[in-house]
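Entry 14. Structure prediction run on the chain below.
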Amino acid sequence: MRRELLLVIVGAAAGVSGCAGPRYYEALQHLKADVGLLDQRVTQLERISVEQAVGVGRPSEPLPAPAAAALAPKHARAAWTRPPKKDIQQALKAAGFYDGPIDGRLGPKTHQAIRNFQQANGLKVEGVVGRHTWEKLAPYLHAPAVTQEAGGSAASTTEQASEPFQK
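Output returned:
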């Protein structure tokens, strides 16, 4: 309850100051939903511990799989962290979209390579590597880099790229 009140106060303060745009409000809605899920989960855990304390359940036995699945938050997202910048550049290079240095700096060439990769893979073209882009880009991370030969055909540094790693 206190968390929801805090979210309302923060949201109102940002709205009054004029610094809140559409992305802010969307993020605030996601945050409110996450807080709601956390509150539900806490309530479930409190209920279970009370039931076990009074002997309704048997604490020594694990919950059956369907019951355990029912207690998990329905809309919980797996934790995801943005990959290191060098990994992004390495994967783009291996996929044949980036020919710059692997220096960990996401400059104009890297952002253009990201946009080209997103367009070629049917993703929303934003120029940033989010969860969906990384899901498609990550398999290229440990693949051999694809280079452009003089004739214009793509070839890997060791041999022709395998089927899943072609553009």
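The CA atoms of residues 85 and 105 lie 7 Å apart.
Filed with the rest of this week's runs.
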